[in-house]
């Protein structure tokens, strides 16, 4: 799939990485025919280093998204059929986000890997959550499985809150993105780690209480999360 970051980046706030910016620049100039350009020219257009452009062109080629040939002035580039398909699919997803915003999302509770308990017990995370959300998180997360497109549409309208990563003597911890919500009426937040073992069909939810106990729910039950 196309390398693209949604920081829910993705509200599903779209943050185009250099893969996507470069692919869109190639498509803007010509989708089906070749363009002749150089890494110097592309680096100036996208305001990144020539080395970054060279690396990204190589990555896009390895992913099968572009076809690249050498030329006297630099490179001849065109989108592959896969590259065109990826951009079309992205357009469909963005259109869905703008046309079908959701004020709530429902899903099924399931047992996770237990990592939420560990991470939400770390003081550096806990105190930042307290500062940003006004509550100390219970050491654990409620894991809810939903349709990815429903999560995208729901998060698109929300304001993300950043939690900074940090380093200890033994390892580095990545940042988090929080989205304040209510889970069945309980003040909560969806937490999205920079690195996670879950797919895009999973919401991890933190709260000041143990949500399963508070809501009297168990794995397999449905819950509703509201903006």
What is shown here, in short?
By secondary structure, the chain is an alpha+beta fold. It contains 8 helices and 14 strands.
Describe this entry's structure for a reader.
- The protein has 227 residues and is an alpha+beta fold.
- The chain folds into 2 domains: 5-82, Winged helix-like DNA-binding domain superfamily/Winged helix DNA-binding domain (Arc Repressor Mutant, subunit A, Orthogonal Bundle); 104-226, Riboflavin kinase-like (Elongation Factor Tu (Ef-tu), domain 3, Beta Barrel), CATH 2.40.30.
- It is built from 8 helices and 14 strands.
- The protein has helices at 18-29, 39-46, 50-62, 81-99, 115-119, 123-133, 148-156, 211-215, and strands at 5-7, 13-15, 35-37, 66-71, 74-79, 104-110, 142-145, 161-163, 166-167, 172-173, 176-183, 186-193, 202-206, 222-226.
- It has a 6-stranded antiparallel beta barrel. A 3-stranded antiparallel β-sheet has the order 3-5-4. It has a two-stranded antiparallel sheet with strand order 1-2.
- Helix 2 (39-46) packs across helix 3 and helix 4 (81-99) crosses helix 7 (148-156).
- It is elongated, with a radius of gyration of 21 Å.
- Residues 1-16 have low confidence and may be disordered.
